[in-house]
Specification:
This protein has 1 helix and 32 strands. The strands form 8 sheets. Strands 11, 12, 13, 14 and 15 form a 5-stranded antiparallel beta sheet that branches. Strands 24, 25, 26, 27 and 28 form a 5-stranded antiparallel beta sheet that branches. It has a domain of about 110 residues. With about 270 residues, it is mostly beta strands.
Amino acid sequence: MFYVVDGKKGKEYGLTDDFYFSQDGSHYVYRVFQNGRWFVVMNGIEGKPFDKVALYDFSADNQTYVASEGNKAFLMIGGEEQNPYDHIAKPTTSADRKRVAYPAERNGEQYLVVDGQEFGPYNGVGNPVFSPEGRRFAWIGNGMHPIIDGTELKEYQVYQPPNFSLDGQSYAFIAHASGKEFVVWNGRALKKYNYVESRLYWSLDGKVLAYVAHFKDFSNGVVVVNENEGNVFDVIGDDVTFSNDNRWLRYSALEKGKLNKVFVEQKIKGKN
């Protein structure tokens, strides 16, 4: 079996799979099984053979993949082995593919590794997230606590990792306490509700935060914009969007007892 790239036939192998191009299309990678061993081929160059190899859709961009040998696993970056662990979960990359983070386990203890820097040990580590511009990162660890840029916020419990604004300057997450849910915005806990929907909405400039909250489980909902509640609706759609000038918020909703959908424009206070 072989691949043809830009009209050029590659080397023939017994088994190949997981072919990926880089985002700009200038690089490619795939893995090969031969003589009982796995290795990767990047831009036509064979890598070192291992017991196992795992490729991902970003592997061609940053020459990153996970390999294992015996009872040890390690991240490979540019052909170089990083620190070994007993287990490595699927890595996460920043949007520009320049940063890499992954949960790892050694001797029963769990860590998060970001660009080679080890955080932990923790009692459990969730999948990390990067801010859109790639500068900041967050994850869940130690009994569902949010951890932002390596700082654990032990006073909160969450089910999802923190969410960053588009410019990475602000963060928010939904916390749970005593049967109530509430948003924490840049370290400040906001009003408690029976239920807060999981999606958080940021304005393009990162200065306005909106979310849908309910006074009952799935009814009597309001759109909360920078802590200001809009009108109460029976159902609110998941189509909340900001106007281009960040002065208005638009969404669809159903009024109580009515079947026809209405479209709402909610003015953002403080925006003239």
